[in-house]
């Protein structure tokens, strides 16, 4: 099979690569004692058949590979808190057993084409030798070439299984497909009147002390400041190490590495510059920065090792050692668990909430942190408890919130009044335009849209698109919708007419639409089968016994 992979290392478009989510059932669970059971050799049962250790281990490798292919990182380094490798492993065992039950096996040519596509994905469109992929990507994580082969075979076989199980879902009549097309693509012609709170803000008077005090008391929870903290830090700025890095790399070596990288990128060099020369200069810069960052890290590790060696371990030691080394200690701005320190560039994936584990007793982050602009050594400085600021401290903010709330209330009151007036007056024969003129509101003529429309001009700034569509499509022609509250205030829709379908356009689009409908029905049929079968087969495993079961949809 591996010879076949090498033979097929050319670009091949493979339609079956559309993402197939193996874990269609996501149960939130507590693992409980199951980890201890597996450690003792008990891997439980699926459909009352024992899961063997090799079966579990092989499926675990495939589950890890599935994660790698979808996210380009391994499960133990990914930032997906909902991913549970143990659960995914059992789901994989279940599916592999179903493949054997249905005697479904992918052909070697399809497997080779799939392998080629994955290798090119990891090479940014360039061919990656299979041996290199195994040595550099798989083997460091305990995955073998055989594990990868089994993963490929099973992945494509599961695609075939989905087609077999979902076959009945494809049986949709032409009349039903045309009806669905009309439902999804027929456009509406509507007018809308938006009642925006901002338009009523100028009508809101300054609040009396009593009114403001009452508002503040009622809304105190919204003004609560979360617990915060500050850290002391020593920063090893990457720019201070770049001249040394450039000198160490040498102009000749830099040019050579940049040229080689440019060749590997091929036409993808445009991600780094408009021309090959611009891309080459950017690559040189990246190479220098990476080396400088590495050198800064070595210096920071040496500093931290010396810091940790000082006993007893206290936050104050950071100041003492930094002064001894001629380094500056800074103190961060106060920050909370959600956003982290705004004046430190720790990178988007750094778990800033973990900094709240620091304390006077355990003051240091265990290792220097590689930020986006250098290396940080952090130590506990101060904790700031959660609190509600007194009214006098945040008076201007509370006044602004009070006025906004009153403006929103006034906008929605006017919206409800207009809705009732329009309904009553139009029942007497008045036109919508006449009602608007008498009420001194300006209707907006919304461009035609359908349920399939992703954007509706003139609406996005006022209301949620899906909410607006729901109001419009549930309103009879020639009538007004009820008043619908929105983040901006609210709106009333008048449906002028349902526009006729463009027959020529429908005729052109119907074949592709038919394919989409049948694929959707096939997926739904497979999902129903999968959930039913998996619910029964996995019921005895602790990972799937939570009573509050929440099932996800395919593609989640």
Number of domains: 3
Give Rg in angstroms. Answer: 31 Å
Helix content: 40-55%
Q: What sequence of helices (H) and strands (E) makes up the elements?
A: HHEEHHHHHHEHEHHHHEEEHHEHEEH
Main β sheet profile: 4 strands, antiparallel
Q: Indicate the structural class.
A: alpha+beta
User: Unreliable segments (pLDDT under 50, ≥5 consecutive)?
Assistant: 1-34, 547-556
Shape estimate = extended
Q: How far from one another are the termini?
A: 32 Å
Strand content bin: 5-15%
Q: Tally the helices.
A: 17
The total beta strand count reads 10
Task: Please provide a written account of the structure.
By secondary structure, the chain is an alpha+beta fold. The protein folds into 3 domains: 195 residues, no CATH class; 138 residues, Roll (Chitinase A, domain 3), CATH 3.10.50; 157 residues, no CATH class. 48% of the residues lie in helices and 10% in strands. The protein has 17 helices and 10 strands. The strands form 3 sheets. Strands 8-3-10-9 form a 4-stranded antiparallel β-sheet, sandwiched between helices. The relative contact order is 0.15. The N terminus and C terminus are likely disordered.
